[in-house]
Every structure is written in structure tokens, then in C-alpha cells.
Design a protein that fits this description.
By secondary structure, the chain is mostly helical. It has eleven helices and no strands. Helix 3 (45-67) packs across helix 10 (209-223). InterPro entries: TM_pro_TauE-like, TSUP.
Length: 248
């Protein structure tokens, strides 16, 4: 067993980051963006991406256990082709491009998406799902695949898509659960091939399983106590925080 030599405060930061992963999967979409920031602050950027991916996969198990029956599977099928393209492009970027500017670009795009989504919802008079067009599916899907491959940051992008689609809370969480479970499994071979996942990161994540479970329980408690309106505000706020983190 080999673990990285980290200061106690670094371990505390990683434990809190693992809690945000659990909470994001069971009730607070986008909360794990803070976890991404903490992992990147404590570990080398590439290694942090691989370590976070393994935790996200564990979190996906909790999300599927709770919300798998509430998913809009037709939306997932429509998104699949563009997401695959985004994943492939993202893998190429990871191999050849400096991730600092890539993350900043993602941050700019996220802020633009938030503004666009809020504007469309404000002017929309009908209470129907907004992004039914092919262009929206291609745009959100490809960007979601790209951002999740490059920085594990697909959550904010897809949150905006599901929010603009006016998904009810459980439909939102169920569709997101299946989406990220499938996408994260698809990312695994790329991450292993690029050397982002090592034996050391596996042991690290095993140590962080308990905080992740605690976070999942917290997320579950929160979602039982909030209304649809509050839920949507939380999603927007966490997405903005994620975008700002990626910018700076």
C-alpha cells in the first residue's frame, strides 16, 4: 500500500472534497466542482483528475441506487452521439494542450451558458421543455463530453441543459445519474491510457470512501427538504461557482 505523503490539512481538504462528490451525486448537482478545486490544489493536476474520476464512479453508484427509475432515457439517447465526440476531442486535448487555458475557456463557456439558459427561461412563456432542438442537444452534449473529459467539469454544463429542459428534481437527478455513470465509465480507459490513474490514486480514493458516503447522506437529506425553486437556485449558484473556479 502506497499513499502520497501529505500534510494533515491536505488530507482534511481531500476528505472534504470527497464529501462534495457524494453530496453532488445525491442532491446538490455541481457541488463537486469545489472538490475538483481542492484536489487540484493538493495534488498535481493530471493525477487529481484521475483520482477524482474514481470517486465520481463510486458516487455514481449511490446516485443510480436512489434515482435510476426517474431518468428521461430518451434525452440520454439523443445526447449520446455528441457526447462521444466531445469525449474524443477532450482526450486529444489532454494529450497535447496545456490544461490551464483549457479550463479558463471552459469557465467562459459555462458563464455564457448560464446567461443563455436564464435568458431563454425568462422569455419562454410556455411551461415546456426548452432545448428540444438538435442544435441545443449537439451543443450541450459535445461541450459536456469535452469538459468532463478534460477537467471532470461536465456537471455544470449538463446541469444547465437539464435545468433549461425544466426537469423536475427527481427527473433531473435520475437523468444526470445515468448520464454521468455511463460517461465516467467511458472515460476510464482514456484516463488509464493517459496515465491519470495509478496504484497510488486507487489507494488514496479507498481512504476517502468514508467521507464520500457521509457526503452522499448529506445530499440526500438536503434534497428531501428543498422545493423545486430552491433546487434550481442551488444548481445555478453552484454552476456559477464552478465556472469562476475554472477561470481563476
Amino acid at each position: 500500500m502506497t499513499l502520497p505523503e501529505l500534510a494533515p490539512i491536505a488530507w482534511a481538504a481531500l476528505a472534504f472534497a470527497a464529501m462534495t462528490v457524494g453530496a453532488s451525486k445525491t442532491g446538490l448537482p455541481g457541488a463537486n466542482t469545489l472538490g475538483i478545486a481542492l484536489f487540484a490544489a493538493v495534488m498535481p493536476a493530471r493525477e487529481s483528475t484521475g483520482a477524482m474520476l474514481l470517486l465520481l464512479l463510486v458516487g455514481d453508484v449511490f446516485a443510480l441506487a436512489l434515482y435510476r427509475r426517474h431518468a428521461d432515457l430518451r434525452s440520454l439517447v439523443r445526447l449520446a452521439p455528441s457526447v462521444i465526440i466531445g469525449l474524443i476531442v477532450g482526450a486529444a486535448f489532454l494529450a497535447f494542450v496545456d490544461d490551464v487555458w483549457v479550463k479558463r475557456s471552459i469557465g467562459v463557456v459555462l458563464l455564457a451558458l448560464i446567461a443563455l439558459t436564464m435568458w431563454r427561461r425568462r422569455i419562454e412563456q410556455e411551461q415546456r421543455r426548452v432545448p428540444g432542438g438538435r442544435g441545443a442537444v449537439i451543443g450541450y452534449g459535445s461541450l459536456g463530453g469535452f469538459t468532463t473529459m478534460v477537467a471532470n467539469a461536465g456537471g455544470p454544463v449538463m446541469s444547465m441543459y437539464f435545468l433549461a429542459s425544466r426537469f423536475e428534481m427527481k427527473a433531473f437527478l435520475g437523468t444526470a445519474a445515468w448520464f454521468f455513470a455511463i460517461v465516467n465509465v467511458a472515460k476510464l480507459p482514456f484516463s488509464i491510457g493517459l496515465g491519470l490513474i495509478t496504484v497510488e490514486t486507487v489507494w488514496l480514493d479507498l481512504v476517502l470512501l468514508l467521507p464520500l458516503v457521509i457526503g452522499a447522506a448529506i445530499g440526500r437529506l438536503v434534497i428531501r427538504r428543498v422545493s423545486q425553486a430552491v433546487f434550481e437556485r442551488i444548481v445555478v449558484i453552484l454552476t456559477v461557482v464552478g465556472a469562476i473556479y475554472l477561470l481563476f
